[in-house]
Amino acid sequence: MAFQHFHTDQSLSEVHESVDTTYPRKGWRRILAYIGPAYLVSVGYMDPGNWATDLQGGAKFGYQLIWVLVMSNLMALLLQSLSARLGIVRRKDLAQANREVYPPLVNFCLYVLAEIAIAACDLAEVLGMALGIHLLTGLPLVWGVGITVLDTLLLLWLQNYGIRKLEAFIIALVIIIGLSFLIEIFLAKPDFGQVVKGFAPTFLSNDALYIAVGIIGATVMPHNLYLHSALVQTRKIKPDLEGIKKAIRYNNIDSAIALNAAFFVNAAILILAASVFFVTGNTNIAKIEDAHKLLQPLLGSKFAPLLFAIALIAAGQSSTITGTMAGQIVMEGYLKLRINPWLRRLITRLIAIIPTMLVILIYGDDKVDALLVLSQVILSVQLGFAIIPLIHFVSDKKTMGQFAIKQWTKILSWLVAAILIVLNVKMVVEQSMLLFETEGNIFWKVVVVIAAIVFSWLFLTMTFIPIIRNKHQRKQGMKIHGEIPSLQNLSVKPTKRIAVSLDFSLNDEKLIAYAIGQGSKDADYILLHIVESVAARFSGEQSDDEETRIDKERLESYVHQLQALGYKVELHLGYTNRVKEIVRIVKESEADMLVMGAHRHSGVKDYLFGETIESVRHSLHIPVLIVNV
User: How far separated are the first and last CA of the chain, in Å rounded?
Assistant: First the structure.
């Protein structure tokens, strides 16, 4: 099944606590177990959406805005550390924490905004990869956009190898980006004295301030806050105070290294633009394509534009993978709805590709940069709706205990949130005012006004509900888990009929043993197996092919062996549809318990069969014992 409701509270359940950090390690190996999540997050800070502002900043104002990048990086470090703290301490991601606190309508609005932000971010990645392919091969931009659909297959392939392999792939892409710009800087030979001066804050003109707002506004991606709070949960940690402290400490180190690597990339782009374009008087560079064209003649090396294009493709590819994971997190966290990753990836990618294709086909390549700006504006709108709940949650002593952030951290966090929100609101208001300055466009003006009212309501509601809720709980003296119930009704109806789903592997004996352990010789046992041969698919119960006959003989052999041991056993064969047939047989045989094995399908098999166990147990109202085989 493509869409499934589920009842687990594990974030990214397929890789939840899949990396064991509790195993004793010495020296650098201790921190190595924690390294990884922040690198997946860091690619959002060097995605193609950031390149345009860095290029413009360096080309127009030289090294002057380096300190703005430093300030943006410090803000990102603070907010990502808060996100990691939430996931480590509460073992919940930001979307799950929101679902606990806010009413359904607010949660649904937050979910929709998060999905729009992820689609907008994917739009920037599509454009970045397509531009990179175009610059590297000369392929028309619209063809490059179409090719980006294929990276869905890459994501599927990587997911089969676990979270550590995925992290290694992303780190490899980050290294490619970093090395590309390191070589570019070497070729550009910047004035390092001027570079050092750029780290000192200076007064900014109106034009420089506008670019600075763009740099800061594009720095913190809202989906990264969801992503980081989930990724840290891929590490299994000791649930005691020392284990949590160690996890927070090492994840902060991980974040510092990864986000400083992202800062290096952004600073390298700005320094490259300053060294190559600002110094030579080419201060009007506003497009990535223009920068690419001028690199070779100005640097005198054919490798410069080649490295630039390769880095652009790597930035787009790495960001798009983490964007898909963020989409899974918000869908599962807000809606408790799971969707197969390949379908999730394809839907997100098509949402980004379709408007891009239309704009390029109708208006030409010249409008691509306007589309890139639009994607950043959409991200700006969503930012506050991720930051404010995060600060509320990590400040709450009732849920965070002694790991709630200190007063000075809280003040600094709210100050950063205020700066980012004001800057982003300013950007959105300026873009909206351009619409109102033109005649006509009545429909879109009405849409903007309505959107402003809805956003204001949602923003105020989201900001003050946790405050009101905490005050109400303090007033009522409520406990976190409510009143302790009186355990009076602990009787359970005896299990009389137990169904056992067999797959005719070496695990059959273990499944039958667990079933007998539940009912001994007092219960009736229903052994069932689903025939999935070609003949069974078309003929069902009428099929008489060799596979069906062998399956029936094997099931009868099990029955005879168990009957000889004194057990009451019957057999049932189902055909074709595994989930439906298991549910049908269990219901028709009136079983009051089902025993199944956790088969751990992987790769293509997983997408063909879906999540059998989840689908079966959600269709039944009896206990289902899952045996890990």
Answer: 23
